[in-house]
Design a protein that fits this description.
The protein has one domain: Helix Hairpins. 90% of the residues lie in helices and 0% in strands.
Length: 120
Amino acid sequence: MKLLKKQIDSFTAAINGIVESISQEFHLKIHLIAIICVVFLGFYMSISKTEWLFLILTMSAVVCLEIVNSAIERLCDKVTKENDPLIKLAKDMAAGSVLITAISSVIIGCIIFIPKFIDL
């Protein structure tokens, strides 16, 4: 029974982290709006299962990295508010990982959707 409670507590903490991220992070809200648009477009364009897999992987990667980026920023801010070059580098690197993933997601989306728009 203790194991089940521990698992439920872990799940609850994870859900809380997602909810707090969505409520507090402006860029995450933008990503979620983009995801909603992509999902509607995917259904409208009747994309294949393989295309859905690529989109789901890229969308979830962007959201996950945005949450990790936010967590790193919060932790860095807790460590120091002073101008520390290593803290700045850590924040910049985390933000860069989100940017790389977002750009690759856009490229994948273009590869999937542009031919479908051309066929219309």
